[in-house]
Amino acid sequence: MRLKLLTIALLPVFSIAAAAQAPVDTLLQSSKARSISINYSPETITLNVKQINGTKDSFHYKYSTSKESFNEVTAIKCTDVSDILVVSSDSALTVSFTDNVGYAVRNTFPLAAAPDRSIRSWTGDSEFGIGFPLRHSGKTTWSMISSGISFGFVTPTNASVAMQPSMGRSLEWTWNIILGVEAHRGRSTFQTGLGMRFRHMSTAAMHYFDKTEDGRICLTPYEEGAHDVKSGVHTFSLQIPLFYRLRFARSWAATIGPIVCFNTGGHLSTRYKIGDNKFEIKTHDIGQRPVTVDGLFAITVGGFGLYARYSPMNVLRDRAGIDFGTFSTGVIVAF
User: Residue 326 in contact with residue 201, Cβ under 8 Å?
Assistant: First the structure.
Protein backbone atom coordinates (compact mmCIF):
# COMPACT_ATOMS: atom_id res chain seq x y z
CA MET A 1 0.00 0.00 0.00
CA ARG A 2 2.85 2.38 0.89
CA LEU A 3 4.59 1.67 -2.44
CA LYS A 4 1.34 2.24 -4.27
CA LEU A 5 0.89 5.65 -2.66
CA LEU A 6 4.44 6.63 -3.47
CA THR A 7 3.96 5.53 -7.05
CA ILE A 8 0.84 7.67 -7.35
CA ALA A 9 2.73 10.60 -5.84
CA LEU A 10 5.41 10.35 -8.51
CA LEU A 11 2.94 10.62 -11.38
CA PRO A 12 2.76 14.46 -11.40
CA VAL A 13 6.51 14.79 -10.93
CA PHE A 14 8.51 15.70 -13.99
CA SER A 15 11.36 17.93 -15.27
CA ILE A 16 13.81 16.26 -12.87
CA ALA A 17 16.74 16.66 -15.24
CA ALA A 18 16.05 20.36 -15.77
CA ALA A 19 15.68 20.94 -12.02
CA ALA A 20 18.98 19.22 -11.29
CA GLN A 21 20.81 21.71 -13.52
CA ALA A 22 19.33 24.77 -11.76
CA PRO A 23 21.02 26.37 -8.72
CA VAL A 24 19.62 24.78 -5.57
CA ASP A 25 19.31 25.88 -1.96
CA THR A 26 19.31 23.40 0.93
CA LEU A 27 16.27 24.17 3.09
CA LEU A 28 16.54 21.21 5.47
CA GLN A 29 19.03 18.43 6.17
CA SER A 30 18.16 16.21 9.13
CA SER A 31 19.18 12.75 10.31
CA LYS A 32 15.68 11.86 11.55
CA ALA A 33 12.17 13.15 12.14
CA ARG A 34 8.97 11.90 13.75
CA SER A 35 6.94 12.28 10.55
CA ILE A 36 6.83 13.87 7.11
CA SER A 37 3.71 14.90 5.22
CA ILE A 38 3.37 16.36 1.72
CA ASN A 39 0.27 17.66 -0.03
CA TYR A 40 0.83 18.47 -3.70
CA SER A 41 -1.09 19.92 -6.61
CA PRO A 42 0.28 22.00 -9.51
CA GLU A 43 -0.92 25.16 -7.70
CA THR A 44 -0.03 24.32 -4.07
CA ILE A 45 2.57 22.42 -2.06
CA THR A 46 2.51 21.97 1.71
CA LEU A 47 5.39 20.16 3.41
CA ASN A 48 5.65 19.47 7.16
CA VAL A 49 8.58 17.65 8.79
CA LYS A 50 7.80 17.23 12.49
CA GLN A 51 10.09 16.81 15.52
CA ILE A 52 13.40 17.17 13.72
CA ASN A 53 16.26 15.21 15.32
CA GLY A 54 14.12 14.37 18.34
CA THR A 55 13.35 18.01 19.21
CA LYS A 56 10.06 19.91 19.32
CA ASP A 57 11.06 21.92 16.25
CA SER A 58 9.41 21.21 12.92
CA PHE A 59 10.12 22.37 9.37
CA HIS A 60 7.33 23.90 7.30
CA TYR A 61 7.20 24.80 3.59
CA LYS A 62 4.28 26.38 1.75
CA TYR A 63 4.02 27.17 -1.96
CA SER A 64 0.93 28.58 -3.65
CA THR A 65 -0.32 30.56 -6.61
CA SER A 66 -3.54 32.53 -6.94
CA LYS A 67 -4.70 30.35 -9.82
CA GLU A 68 -7.89 28.47 -8.96
CA SER A 69 -7.17 24.76 -8.68
CA PHE A 70 -9.39 21.96 -9.93
CA ASN A 71 -6.64 19.34 -9.69
CA GLU A 72 -6.71 16.43 -7.30
CA VAL A 73 -4.31 16.81 -4.37
CA THR A 74 -1.74 14.06 -3.90
CA ALA A 75 -0.93 13.29 -0.25
CA ILE A 76 2.12 11.52 1.16
CA LYS A 77 2.66 10.81 4.86
CA CYS A 78 5.28 8.65 6.58
CA THR A 79 6.35 8.30 10.21
CA ASP A 80 9.77 7.69 11.76
CA VAL A 81 11.72 8.82 8.71
CA SER A 82 15.48 9.41 8.41
CA ASP A 83 18.08 11.04 6.14
CA ILE A 84 15.75 13.90 5.21
CA LEU A 85 16.95 16.36 2.58
CA VAL A 86 14.88 19.24 1.22
CA VAL A 87 16.35 21.39 -1.56
CA SER A 88 14.76 24.00 -3.81
CA SER A 89 15.46 25.92 -6.98
CA ASP A 90 13.43 28.46 -8.92
CA SER A 91 11.74 25.67 -10.83
CA ALA A 92 11.44 22.72 -8.42
CA LEU A 93 11.31 21.44 -4.85
CA THR A 94 13.03 18.11 -4.17
CA VAL A 95 12.28 16.06 -1.04
CA SER A 96 14.34 12.96 -0.21
CA PHE A 97 14.08 10.67 2.83
CA THR A 98 14.22 7.06 3.99
CA ASP A 99 11.00 5.59 5.39
CA ASN A 100 10.68 3.36 8.46
CA VAL A 101 11.25 0.14 6.49
CA GLY A 102 14.42 1.43 4.83
CA TYR A 103 12.91 2.40 1.46
CA ALA A 104 14.59 5.46 -0.12
CA VAL A 105 12.09 8.02 -1.42
CA ARG A 106 12.86 10.96 -3.70
CA ASN A 107 10.18 13.32 -5.08
CA THR A 108 10.73 16.37 -7.25
CA PHE A 109 7.81 18.80 -7.49
CA PRO A 110 7.83 21.44 -10.26
CA LEU A 111 7.19 25.06 -9.26
CA ALA A 112 5.34 27.15 -11.81
CA ALA A 113 7.07 30.38 -12.86
CA ALA A 114 3.95 32.39 -11.97
CA PRO A 115 4.52 36.08 -11.11
CA ASP A 116 2.05 35.87 -8.19
CA ARG A 117 3.42 32.75 -6.54
CA SER A 118 4.14 32.71 -2.82
CA ILE A 119 6.85 30.61 -1.15
CA ARG A 120 7.43 30.45 2.61
CA SER A 121 9.52 28.16 4.79
CA TRP A 122 10.41 28.25 8.46
CA THR A 123 11.53 26.11 11.35
CA GLY A 124 9.77 26.27 14.72
CA ASP A 125 7.37 24.60 17.12
CA SER A 126 4.28 26.01 15.41
CA GLU A 127 2.76 25.66 11.99
CA PHE A 128 2.11 29.39 12.03
CA GLY A 129 5.36 31.23 11.33
CA ILE A 130 5.68 34.80 12.57
CA GLY A 131 8.07 36.10 9.97
CA PHE A 132 9.32 35.59 6.46
CA PRO A 133 12.33 33.52 5.38
CA LEU A 134 15.31 35.46 4.03
CA ARG A 135 17.93 32.83 3.26
CA HIS A 136 19.55 29.59 4.39
CA SER A 137 23.25 29.22 5.13
CA GLY A 138 24.17 25.64 5.91
CA LYS A 139 22.03 24.62 8.91
CA THR A 140 21.23 28.25 9.80
CA THR A 141 17.88 29.77 8.78
CA TRP A 142 17.59 33.56 8.50
CA SER A 143 14.12 35.10 8.80
CA MET A 144 12.46 38.49 9.04
CA ILE A 145 10.38 38.60 12.22
CA SER A 146 8.11 40.57 14.53
CA SER A 147 8.20 39.36 18.12
CA GLY A 148 7.52 39.87 21.80
CA ILE A 149 4.65 42.05 23.07
CA SER A 150 4.81 42.46 26.84
CA PHE A 151 3.07 44.19 29.73
CA GLY A 152 4.62 44.62 33.17
CA PHE A 153 4.89 46.47 36.46
CA VAL A 154 7.81 48.82 37.16
CA THR A 155 9.60 49.77 40.38
CA PRO A 156 12.47 52.26 40.72
CA THR A 157 15.84 50.99 41.98
CA ASN A 158 18.65 52.81 43.77
CA ALA A 159 16.54 55.98 43.99
CA SER A 160 18.30 59.00 45.49
CA VAL A 161 15.02 60.24 47.04
CA ALA A 162 12.09 58.46 48.69
CA MET A 163 9.84 58.11 45.65
CA GLN A 164 7.32 55.78 47.36
CA PRO A 165 6.44 54.01 44.10
CA SER A 166 2.88 52.97 43.33
CA MET A 167 3.33 49.46 41.90
CA GLY A 168 -0.27 49.25 40.75
CA ARG A 169 0.13 52.39 38.66
CA SER A 170 3.77 52.03 37.55
CA LEU A 171 3.47 50.18 34.26
CA GLU A 172 5.28 49.50 31.00
CA TRP A 173 4.17 48.33 27.55
CA THR A 174 6.77 46.94 25.18
CA TRP A 175 6.93 45.64 21.63
CA ASN A 176 10.38 44.09 21.80
CA ILE A 177 10.93 43.67 18.04
CA ILE A 178 8.53 45.43 15.69
CA LEU A 179 10.67 44.42 12.72
CA GLY A 180 13.91 42.46 12.88
CA VAL A 181 15.90 39.44 11.80
CA GLU A 182 16.37 36.02 13.35
CA ALA A 183 19.07 33.39 12.89
CA HIS A 184 17.86 29.91 13.86
CA ARG A 185 20.15 26.91 14.19
CA GLY A 186 19.12 23.77 16.05
CA ARG A 187 17.90 24.71 19.53
CA SER A 188 19.53 28.17 19.43
CA THR A 189 18.11 31.40 18.05
CA PHE A 190 19.60 34.90 17.80
CA GLN A 191 17.29 37.90 17.33
CA THR A 192 17.76 41.62 16.78
CA GLY A 193 15.69 44.45 15.35
CA LEU A 194 13.85 47.65 16.24
CA GLY A 195 11.29 47.85 19.04
CA MET A 196 9.69 50.37 21.39
CA ARG A 197 8.70 50.78 25.02
CA PHE A 198 6.35 53.06 26.98
CA ARG A 199 7.19 53.32 30.70
CA HIS A 200 5.32 55.13 33.48
CA MET A 201 6.52 55.36 37.08
CA SER A 202 3.98 56.70 39.55
CA THR A 203 4.43 57.77 43.17
CA ALA A 204 2.05 56.99 46.01
CA ALA A 205 3.35 59.88 48.13
CA MET A 206 1.36 63.04 48.90
CA HIS A 207 3.93 64.84 46.76
CA TYR A 208 4.04 65.33 43.00
CA PHE A 209 6.90 65.42 40.51
CA ASP A 210 7.76 69.03 39.71
CA LYS A 211 10.38 70.80 37.60
CA THR A 212 12.12 73.84 39.07
CA GLU A 213 13.34 76.85 37.12
CA ASP A 214 16.90 75.47 37.01
CA GLY A 215 15.66 72.21 35.41
CA ARG A 216 15.85 69.97 38.49
CA ILE A 217 13.13 67.44 39.28
CA CYS A 218 11.82 67.40 42.83
CA LEU A 219 8.87 66.11 44.86
CA THR A 220 6.60 69.01 45.86
CA PRO A 221 3.68 68.77 48.35
CA TYR A 222 0.17 69.07 46.88
CA GLU A 223 -1.97 72.02 47.76
CA GLU A 224 -4.06 71.71 50.89
CA GLY A 225 -7.28 69.81 50.26
CA ALA A 226 -5.99 67.91 47.22
CA HIS A 227 -7.47 64.46 46.62
CA ASP A 228 -7.59 61.82 43.84
CA VAL A 229 -3.92 62.55 43.29
CA LYS A 230 -1.67 60.91 40.69
CA SER A 231 1.82 61.93 39.57
CA GLY A 232 4.47 60.15 37.54
CA VAL A 233 7.38 60.13 35.13
CA HIS A 234 6.68 58.98 31.56
CA THR A 235 9.35 57.89 29.07
CA PHE A 236 9.24 56.55 25.53
CA SER A 237 12.10 54.59 24.01
CA LEU A 238 13.06 53.12 20.69
CA GLN A 239 15.12 50.01 21.38
CA ILE A 240 17.50 47.60 19.67
CA PRO A 241 17.70 44.25 21.51
CA LEU A 242 20.18 41.43 20.97
CA PHE A 243 18.54 38.25 22.26
CA TYR A 244 19.76 34.67 22.54
CA ARG A 245 17.07 32.01 22.93
CA LEU A 246 17.60 28.37 23.89
CA ARG A 247 14.76 25.88 23.41
CA PHE A 248 14.48 22.97 25.82
CA ALA A 249 11.95 20.48 27.22
CA ARG A 250 9.68 20.39 24.18
CA SER A 251 8.05 23.83 23.81
CA TRP A 252 9.93 25.65 26.61
CA ALA A 253 12.48 28.37 25.86
CA ALA A 254 14.76 30.71 27.81
CA THR A 255 15.72 34.11 26.38
CA ILE A 256 18.40 36.50 27.60
CA GLY A 257 20.17 39.54 26.22
CA PRO A 258 20.93 43.28 26.36
CA ILE A 259 18.68 46.04 25.01
CA VAL A 260 20.02 49.40 23.83
CA CYS A 261 17.37 52.08 24.47
CA PHE A 262 17.17 55.43 22.69
CA ASN A 263 15.00 57.50 25.03
CA THR A 264 13.39 59.90 22.59
CA GLY A 265 10.58 61.19 24.79
CA GLY A 266 9.87 62.04 28.41
CA HIS A 267 7.51 64.14 30.49
CA LEU A 268 5.98 64.56 33.95
CA SER A 269 2.24 64.30 34.47
CA THR A 270 0.23 65.26 37.56
CA ARG A 271 -3.51 65.12 38.17
CA TYR A 272 -5.46 66.02 41.30
CA LYS A 273 -8.72 67.53 42.51
CA ILE A 274 -9.48 70.29 44.98
CA GLY A 275 -13.18 70.34 45.74
CA ASP A 276 -15.01 70.07 42.42
CA ASN A 277 -12.06 71.48 40.45
CA LYS A 278 -9.80 69.12 38.51
CA PHE A 279 -6.20 70.06 37.75
CA GLU A 280 -3.83 68.44 35.25
CA ILE A 281 -0.20 69.46 34.72
CA LYS A 282 2.15 68.10 32.03
CA THR A 283 5.82 69.08 31.95
CA HIS A 284 8.20 68.30 29.07
CA ASP A 285 11.99 68.55 28.64
CA ILE A 286 12.70 66.63 31.84
CA GLY A 287 16.26 65.66 30.90
CA GLN A 288 15.90 61.93 30.29
CA ARG A 289 19.18 60.16 29.54
CA PRO A 290 19.37 59.79 25.73
CA VAL A 291 20.86 56.27 25.63
CA THR A 292 20.64 53.52 28.25
CA VAL A 293 21.27 49.77 28.26
CA ASP A 294 18.90 47.24 29.87
CA GLY A 295 19.00 43.47 30.36
CA LEU A 296 16.10 41.06 29.82
CA PHE A 297 15.44 37.46 30.85
CA ALA A 298 12.30 35.53 29.88
CA ILE A 299 10.93 32.01 30.26
CA THR A 300 8.24 31.03 27.76
CA VAL A 301 6.24 27.98 26.80
CA GLY A 302 4.55 27.90 23.42
CA GLY A 303 5.27 31.61 22.88
CA PHE A 304 3.71 32.79 26.18
CA GLY A 305 5.58 33.42 29.43
CA LEU A 306 7.08 35.71 32.06
CA TYR A 307 9.91 38.22 31.82
CA ALA A 308 12.14 40.32 34.06
CA ARG A 309 13.88 43.47 32.83
CA TYR A 310 16.57 45.38 34.71
CA SER A 311 17.57 48.95 33.85
CA PRO A 312 20.67 49.71 35.96
CA MET A 313 21.42 53.09 34.37
CA ASN A 314 19.76 56.26 35.65
CA VAL A 315 16.59 57.20 33.80
CA LEU A 316 17.32 60.95 34.10
CA ARG A 317 20.52 62.91 33.58
CA ASP A 318 22.54 64.10 36.56
CA ARG A 319 21.29 67.68 36.13
CA ALA A 320 17.74 66.49 36.85
CA GLY A 321 18.69 65.93 40.48
CA ILE A 322 16.89 62.57 40.88
CA ASP A 323 18.77 59.32 40.28
CA PHE A 324 17.02 55.99 39.83
CA GLY A 325 17.01 52.92 37.63
CA THR A 326 14.10 50.50 37.18
CA PHE A 327 13.22 46.83 37.53
CA SER A 328 10.12 45.42 35.83
CA THR A 329 8.36 42.06 35.61
CA GLY A 330 5.35 40.94 33.63
CA VAL A 331 3.92 38.74 30.91
CA ILE A 332 5.13 38.37 27.35
CA VAL A 333 3.39 36.86 24.32
CA ALA A 334 4.37 35.89 20.76
CA PHE A 335 7.99 35.44 21.90
Answer: yes
